[in-house]
Structure formats: structure tokens, C-alpha cells
Amino acid sequence: MTPAPLALSLGDPAGIGPEIIVKAWRILRLTGPVFAVIGDARSLTAPFGAESAPIGAIRNLDEAAAVFPAALPVVDMPLAGEVAAAMVIRWIETAAGLALRGAASGLVTAPIAKAPLYAAGFAFPGHTEFLGRLAPAPQGEARGPVMMLTAADLRVALVTIHEPLAAVPGLITLDAIVNAGLVTARALTRDFGVARPRLAVAGLNPHAGEGGALGGEEIAVVAPAIRALRQSGVDATGPHPADSLFHPEARAKYDAALCLYHDQALIPVKMLDFWGGVNVTLGLAIVRTSPDHGVGFDIVGQGVARPDSLIAALRLAAKIAARRAAA
User: Fold this and answer.
1) SS in 3 state form for the chain?
2) Domain extent listing, the chain
């Protein structure tokens, strides 16, 4: 059976999303994975020089595969006047709905600029939290959203995501760590084919607290959460000092690192593979990936935006969707 195409929400039309989408289609059009853009077709016709693409307007995603080799399939949802933020939200909702109904095999999201969305009343810190509301995992499963970043041989999952650093110590509760660990372990098995997932849990403080001398969160919260994960059947170790968790020898000892806050996880990913990292949302009812970068307003229109991360996100979404379908 031919897999359903991926739904790719356009993201912020004023950013580099349109450019990298066109470039990704030019590279993938003969090999796949097949994807269809949900968004404003005119935004994809900006002059990208040799990187421009013909647009194939479609009404349903089942038309995408036939169109894909010759034109970029687009479900056209035009911008309403100059108010882009409301349409960006609608594009995400529509693409997620297609994935929930099975019309799309997964959802890939191009970058969004958060400030305009906040000004328009968007009540979520970002894509990840919004999709947790739109497509929650079924009752009875450990539920996300949990953000995972992948790059080369490194996977990192986060207990807290877009939170001020000062708020993190109060948010890394035992329940939060355990839930993130359970979601991550399940995803490693179901989506990445890891039969017996190994999690390495990072500490919060320097030297993982140095036995309490440099902070007590490891003793009071992190270590009990690791014990609870083990009691639930998850091979979890730690708390590990974060400064020694990401070198090659350390990475060989676990399948994913469970990190406690945003930069603890994203800095090693971007150091390892700045251009090819992928953001994966775990604990949803659908497959969702995105490129691991922002809207790139500073390089819009220059023709220099690289599609590497978007291509990696499309390929990973297709691979996860295929693994789920086979299971």
C-alpha cells in the first residue's frame, strides 16, 4: 500500500519556511517522501532564483503523490489580508487534523515566529505545547508533549521545554520526570526500533549536585524519579553530570538522554549537527517532526537558507510513520 503523504504546515510565510520548502521539494521530488504543503500558495512563489518550483494546487492529500514529481503540492489556504498570525495557526490545525484522520501519515511543521502569534492571542509557548492540545495521546498511555531532538547518534528528550531558567527547579517534579521518561522509552521502542531503551537522566546542578553540596534537587527529586522509572521497567541511570554526558564514549551508553531544561539538551545537539538536527514531538496521537531552527528573518530573500534540517525532518517523519504502520 502506498503511504499517505506527509502534511507540511507552511509556518511563518515571512520567514525562510517557503524557501526551504521549495528547496526540499526540488531535492526530494523524485525520491520522496511525498509531502503536501498546507498554507498560502502565493508565499511559495517568491523568486528563489534557480530554486523556484511550479505549484500544484490540490484539494485532497490523496492527489499529492501524482503531482509531486512535477510540482510542489499545495492545499491552498490563502492569507486573509495582512493578518498572517491567525492563518499560521489555522494551517497548523488543518495539517494536524489531516494527520489525526489518517489522510496524512504525519505532520511536519515549518518554523513559526512566536511573537506575532502571542500578539494574536496564541496561548501556547510554541508548536510542541499547541500540538499536545490538538493531538493528545490516547487515554491509558503516558502522554506528552515531550520534545525530543535528534542529531547524528544523539537523541535528547526534555522534561521542561520553553520555560525561564529561574522556573525550572520548581517544574522538575518526580511526576514530570517519570512521565517524560515513560513517553521517551515508549517512543524509542515504537518509533525508533530500540528493543530495550536505555535512558541517561541528567542532573540539574553542576556535578549533579555533588552529593548535595551544589544543590539538592538530584537527591530530593531526580534520583527518586529514576528509581520510579526503573520500577516501571525502564532502564534509567543517573543523575549524570550534564557536562560529561554528551561526548562520544558517553553517547554509546544510552539511547536517549533525558534533560531537565531547554539549553541543557539543545546545545549538544546543535554542536553535534547544527544543520541536520530534527525536533520530534513524543507522546502525541500523530507523528510530528520539524526542523531544528527558527524563521531566519535575517537571511530572508538572500537565497542562502539551507533545507538540510527540513529534509531530515521529512525523512524521519516518513520513517516513523512507516514503522508505526508496519507494527
Assistant:
1) CCCCCEEEECCCCCCCHHHHHHHHHHHHCCCCCCEEEEECHHHHHCCCHHHCCCEEECCCHHHHHHHCCCCEEEEECCCCCCCHHHHHHHHHHHHHHHHHHCCCCEEEECCCCHHHHHHCCCCCCCHHHHHHHHCECCCCCCCCCEEEEEECCEEEEECCCCCCHHHHHHHCCHHHHHHHHHHHHHHHHHHHCCCCCEEEEECCCHHHHHHHCCCCHHHHHHHHHHHHHHHCCCEEEEEECHHHCCCHHHHCCCCEEEECCHHHHHHHHHHHCCCCCEEEEECECCCEEEECCCCCHHHCCCCCCCCHHHHHHHHHHHHHHHHHHHC
2) 1-130, 137-283
